[in-house]
């Protein structure tokens, strides 16, 4: 079990912020800034990499991979596992 992890630009948020040896925000801290923008309040972010994020969409009740800049939904999934695997495959994190 882990309190989040970061590898090859893939970050999965844990319960608490990690300060060292790298900075990795906890899930609350990672989401705080999104709530300043009304249109982003529908998302809870769980993970990110350079170009995309894995979020839970409160409106559709589905997990989604979204563009990190535009917040456009790339694809939606029934489970977090499916969304995270899609992000890993698309971003080639482990290649």
How would you explain this protein's 3D organization?
The chain has 95 residues and is an alpha+beta fold. The chain is 19% helix and 31% strand. The protein has helices at residues 27-32, 80-91, and strands at 5-7, 10-12, 43-48, 52-57, 62-67, 73-77.
Largest sheet: 6 strands, antiparallel
Indicate the overall shape.
globular
What radius of gyration results from the CA coordinates?
Answer: 13 Å
Class from secondary-structure proportions: alpha+beta
Q: How much beta, percentage-wise?
A: 25-35%
SSE order? EEHEEEEH
The pLDDT mean sits at 88
Low-confidence parts, pLDDT < 50 over ≥5 residues? none
**C-alpha termini separation:** 24 Å
| Count of discrete alpha- or pi-helical segments spanning 4 or more residues | 2
Helix content: 10-25%
Q: Report the count of strand segments.
A: 6
Order of strands, main sheet, comes to 1-2-3-4-5-6
